[in-house]
Amino acid sequence: MYSASTDKQAPPPDAGKYVRLGIIAVIGIAIFAIVGNQAVILSMNFTEFGDQFSKPLYYTLVSTIILSSIALIRVNIGARSSIFWYGLNTAIGFLGRAPQQNISANIPSFREYKLGTPQFVIWQITKVLLFGAFFANIMFGFAAISFIDGNSLGIEHLPNLFSLPFVTPETDPNYAAENVVPMIPALVILIPPVLAAIGLRLVLYVGIHKIIDVITSFIKDSNEGKPRYLNYVSTIETVLGIGILWAGFNLFFTDQIDYNTRYVIGGTLVIGFALIAFSIVDRIRARVLTHMFKRDVIIRFATILVIGLIVGGVVGVNNSIADAKKIEYLGPYTAQQIGVNRYLGELNNVQENTHDVKLQSVSPNNIKNYVGKHSDVLDVIRVWDWEAAFAKLKPEIGLIPYVDFEDNDILRFNNTLYWTASMKPILPTSVSLENRWYNEHLVYTHVPNGFLTLEATDGQIVDSSEFFKQREIYYGEGGLFEQTWSGYPNSRGETSAELGGAFYSGIGGLDVSPPLSWIFEPNFLLSFPAESVHIMRYKDVNDRMETLYPYFLYDLFGRELDSLPVTDGTNSYWLVPLIIGFDTHDVPWSVGNPYLRLVGYALIDSYNGDIQLLKTGDDFFTEMFASQYNDQFKPIPTWLQEQIRYPVELFNWKTEMYNIYHVTDVETFIQANQFYEIPRGLDTYYVEAKPPGFEQTEFLGLLSLELRGSQGRNLAGYMVVENDLTNLGNLQFYEVPLNSTTKLIGPTAVREALDRDPEFAQLKTLLRNPRIGDNILYRVGEHDIYFIPVYTAGAGGVVAQLGTIAAVGAAFTGEYYVGLGETQEEAFEAYLKKVSGVAPTSTTANSDFIELDKTDRVDIIKSIFTQEEITISEPTSIQVPLSFKEGEIFFFTENDREDTIEFLNTFIDDFVKPRSDRIFMWQEENNLNIGTIVVKDGIPEMHYVSIEVGN
């Protein structure tokens, strides 16, 4: 029945309230999940790794406290100012002001704003807690603890730093060795973070504080109708003066000092002190005056300008004089640059040998005896290179879809070299999306047979279990190891979901029980609500090391460090080099070259993941690290002495340093005409060899060097590094004298010598575009020989076969000598016969002009694309809307061949391979045009190069 009471409708529910509560609840749950997950991971790390995980956190905490205290904590309890609380108080005042109130009336004076004493003290502590994470520097914390323990790190030598710019040193690198080297530990690890923290403190409490003070004082004084401009100027002068003084102070911490540095530092400091003096004068005058006189402004700008002009003039005059007297002016400082960088690269330890290159013939009656006499070298020559070994090992995987190659390393077992390929687990592409999680974490947990081995001399695949009895890899490199974790329920009984029904029984990982397992992985809440789960994390060895030992470099010069598989005959391990690196921009005369040292190695069990530390270094950081981690270092096991290998990354870097800083004569260094360089495309070769001075073959790293900028393609020498533990890292350089009548040809020239050999040219036709392998320089008796394998199939083929072996003489007196054979002994014997005159030699190479027939030149050009498996189409004409010529070159003689090959390889890499496996070739008059079509925005474009080949 209708009534007045029933006419009123009930108010609608407050939907917005429930929405807000829902949003808050979702945010709360998300925060709880994220924080809870991270807390669980942190707890798991402490449980699984103990001190290995907690120590880096401890050093990080130490650095956080020290550096944030230097940068943030204020001790002036009398002023008790705070930018943060002042800004917050001002913002609140703005929110509470009346609309008609003037904005400036709500801005209080920063100078008069003070915190209460308890609030000020609490705020200093709170700043460290809030912002300390931004100051985390584990290396500084590590060094600080070592310093507290009594390691001075060369701090006592730092006063010498401030005299270096003002003393002209002698032209002797020993000056730097005596005055700079002792302070390097402090300059690379302690001083830079402290300087950065002090600089930030000056910005905050001198710069920003004073600027806010000036602004708020101006607003307050303007409201009162009496702005004091002179007072503001004096404050700004103080800020600028202190900033310039700080910049001048930092100029002492530079990586380069020369004859002008003293004037730049002096001029900067004088300008800074002048501004401070002006600020003091203006502060005193501000008690009486409110404005500056025009004369005062002119005096200040004129002073700074005059000082700048004087310094600039002196620098300009010095540079002008130095252009004519470079040795007198720049020589002393160049000598110190040499001294510091020879220390950084440990170049004083490089043994330098003069390599007397000779071309000696052997009596024809004694050739076979000579070959047999040097069988110790010939029997261990590395005939199979990386690509050929990879091609031959790849079919061994067969049709297995869940593993892939990760790396292929040259290793030594029983004085024999082997290519050992390690594998990684991958998720088969056939796994559907809904089954991905299950397979990633519970099935594809390991590689069942993780190593394949091929002998590097005879190319025979050997049973890897002869060396690696433990071939199951649960901790390795790449693939699913890097991407995710794995696990299994502890209640799995006799049924395992692991690949192949494997049952992991090692000590790697840890058991996680509910409810921690639920937070770590929410899927476990429903799948294993009441069961503990065994979790294995950080399965990639580099990730594992970086988590537990973040002090070291695991990526160097843009590439991941090479970790080697090694074995004790029962268990398999990863040998990870421990390389420390520091920036040296605060080290005088370092010119920015880094400080790199090998501390030792880490042995990581491929099944259990446990880590052993091995020490080989003796530098300051190694001693610090060994003292802090003394309980985790183990003696180097005897079984590893033969398998250990010096890191290729360090060897290459030291060689690059040697390329420049082997020159110790200042005049020669400034003239820069005796620097070396690594030939383009050449890598370090690890081989068994016997260079001059070695009594037997040893496991060495070899890198050839050419004279930088030389138009010839001869070697200036070659560098070797020893890998035996007793001499690990010892470098020897074999230098060919510049005036040597017999040259040592380089990798480029040796390839040309092989191509010119008539016998090889005929064989090359029969082999149908063979692949030329590594050209490695060996010393066999008194002969320097390149042994070059020639394969009938490349890395892309199903089967790699050895077509022939070439022995090319490296000693060059105007004629190349090339021997071919099915074995290295046969090739060397054929070479000796040609040298002795028993067999005919190839064409001479001292002619500057060898003209090729046009047909030959075109065939050479086509062969380049055939070798790259690129199809050649030869249309009668080309009609494309847009055409772009990307370069041109001429090809008439043999001397032009190398440049043409390099020119076309660049074109292939830049324009063909990224998009197509086909090119078009057509001729216009004397030019042969080669192009590829690219479709961009629906419009075809022809990108081509032109080679003039004549008629």
List the helices and strands and how they pair.
Blueprint: H1 4-7, H2 15-49, H3 51-72, H4 83-95, H5 117-131, H6 138-148, H7 174-179, H8 184-223, H9 229-250, H10 261-285, H11 294-324, H12 326-344, E1 351-354, H13 367-373, H14 375-378, H15 386-397, E2 403-413, E3 416-425, H16 436-443, E4 451-455, E5 461-462, H17 479-483, E6 486-489, E7 510-512, H18 516-520, H19 523-527, E8 533-536, H20 541-548, E9 555-556, E10 559-560, E11 564-567, E12 572-582, E13 595-605, E14 611-615, H21 620-628, H22 648-661, H23 666-671, E15 676-677, E16 685-689, E17 698-707, E18 715-722, E19 731-735, E20 743-744, H24 747-756, H25 758-767, E21 771-772, E22 776-780, E23 783-791, E24 802-809, E25 811-812, E26 818-821, H26 824-836, H27 854-867, E27 871-873, E28 882-890, H28 897-912, E29 918-924, E30 927-936, E31 939-948
Parallel strand pairs: 1-19, 27-29, 28-31
Antiparallel strand pairs: 2-3, 3-4, 4-5, 6-8, 7-8, 9-10, 11-12, 12-13, 13-14, 15-17, 16-17, 17-18, 18-19, 20-25, 21-23, 22-23, 23-24, 24-26, 29-30, 30-31
Helix percentage range: 40-55%
The tally of beta strands, per DSSP, is 31
CA radius of gyration: 36 Å
**Average pLDDT rating:** 87
DSSP helical segment count: 28
Instruction: Assign the structural class, choosing from mainly alpha, mainly beta, alpha/beta, alpha+beta, or little secondary structure.
Output: alpha+beta
Largest sheet: 6 strands, mixed
Distance between the terminal alpha carbons, to the nearest Å? 113 Å
**Hey, roughly how much beta strand do the residues contain?**
15-25%
Which regions contain 5 or more consecutive residues with pLDDT less than 50?
794-798, 842-851
Shape: globular
